[in-house]
Amino acid sequence: MPTYRSKTSTQGRNMAGARALWRATGMHTEDFEKPIIAVANSFTQFVPGHVHLKDLGQLVCREIEA
Question: Which residues, 6+ apart, have CB-to-CB distance to 34 below 8 Å?
Fold first, then answer.
């Protein structure tokens, strides 16, 4: 199994607080063995040209989780 950089925030006793926060967002024990991927999105309701980015960001998140 590859070693991911995210291991620094998901493994070890000193990161128990971080794991608790990750679990509060819905992560499960098996998720801690996977890489953590963040999706940045510039969606805003104030810029009409960005409205489609909300759906696009959600689509990207679903595909990453699949």
Answer: 4
Q: What is the DSSP secondary structure assignment for residue 4, as one 8-state letter? A: P
Do 1 and 29 lie in one domain? The reply is yes
Same domain as 47, residue 24: no
- Alpha-carbon distance of 17 to 59, in angstroms, equals 30
Residue matched to tokens 């309701």: 45
Residues 3 and 27 in one domain: yes
- Quick one: average pLDDT of 1-10? 80
Same structural domain, 30 and 40:
no
Ordered DSSP codes for 15-57: GHHHHHHHHHTT--GGGGGSPP--------SSSGGGTHHHHHH
- Which pLDDT tens digit goes with each residue over 10-22? 888 998 998 999 8
